[in-house]
Amino acid sequence: MARVLTLDNVNVDNKTVLVRVDINSPLRPDTKAFLDTTRIKAIVPTLNRLSGAKVVLLAHQSRPGKNDFTTTLGHSRELGRILGRPIKWVDDLAGEKAMNAIESLKVGEILMLNNVRMYDEELNSKGNFHQLSETTIVQNLASVADLFVYDAFACAHRSTATGVGFTHLIPCVAGEVMNNEITKLDLALQNPARPCLAVLGGIKVDDSIAVADHMLRNNICDEFWATGGVANLLLELSGYNIGSVNHDFLVKELGKNWHQTVETAKALIVDFKEKIHLPVDVAANIEDNRVDIEVEKLPIEAPIFDLGIQSIRNLSAAIKNAGTVHLNGPAGVFERPDFAFGTIEMLNACAESKAYVVVGGGHTATLIVKHGLRNKMGHLSTGGGACLDYIAGKILPAVASLEASANAFTLNIQKAVDQ
To answer: What is the pTM of this model?
Structure first.
């Protein structure tokens, strides 16, 4: 369990507070208009806690080379619309314009700096917390701030200057988004209601296998239900011929991680055969038609795009009888109506279950919101890769930074912030 400081541990009144947020949002390619503002709305609770401070927001939007890579000016305007008051913005990150804008802030005002990924130091700096602290970005911003609040869980698996560079320079605490993520995920990992199911799918097969390996070997989950590309790999390793088209797709998707993922998956099949549930039938795409086939009748030289009807029934029944469900990744190619059945039924089962359901970010979370099921889930994570890494037992750089800062400042943090 992560041991970090939160906003409950500090006095922010009249202080200058840096807040690293993740408000990276889907934009229309032509107008850059927001298609979804969920992540911007998510930071409002943290900003409410900082109403007595001078707030400086550090954020990113996409990355260089992508068509949605742009400044954060639109984000500042959208945040202002949500809050009902103007948000200041400056076309700078840590230069003279940014420093002057920060120095002129009044208590209660919010300033958003420009997209941090427009600056080489953020994109290219490597190293540990100390090395990242020596970047110009961090040195300049730390010199005018009293406190750093990390509230970008979706970026927590990345080690960047604006994420972990402040670790030993100023007190660093978790914001409301970050604290909620850690608390809710720990709840489902430390002492889950039984039976605990790991339902893992999608095309990030290597990540899902790593999660299953951690959860099974540490007795976190009682059952592992494989869907999507994860199911295809485990079927093949269990002796079923999934067809060359499906095998080749997995090899291509996994790339350099193919051999390690296969070795880990083989070991799971040997060590936890009774806890692993594979599909009994699958749905293949044959000339753009859904064709269900029992796995005993494989191979089929067509792409497998979904769980079969009986497999969906089996999974839904297990979810409805579970105590805890860790869900990550769709059950199939849900973008195609004929092959969305498995994913939609899986999500409906989660909504109807009395289990505490933890959902990773990404496509699964988007579908849940789209179908109006958000309030039926125990926790809908804001982070895809970060959530997967956390439940796989990996150390997230942002969490490690917060823990290191807590150790460094715990004894005198109130004094450090108040002085």
So the answer is: 0.89
